[in-house]
Amino acid sequence: MPGVVLQVAPRTGGTARVGYTASRKVGNAVVRNRSRRRLRAAVATLLPGHADAALDYVLIAREATAARPWPALLGDLETAMRRLGAWRVSASA
What we know:
alpha+beta; three-stranded mixed sheet; 39% helix
């Protein structure tokens, strides 16, 4: 996805864990921090209703993460989760 790279790994028990990373290729410290904040906000929006508790998630920022429009970034994360089979339909949907 243009805005984010998603990796998932199976785990036993507990709840889903999430990790964030942004390499120096993303930009300077300000851009990397902004990218991680945007990824945290995207996870807070999507994962509570759609995360699989049997998986750990790692989100890797890309160069486009900081400037990507918000709806597109959410779409990137949703599409990545669907492609990896990590998307669960929420109970409220």
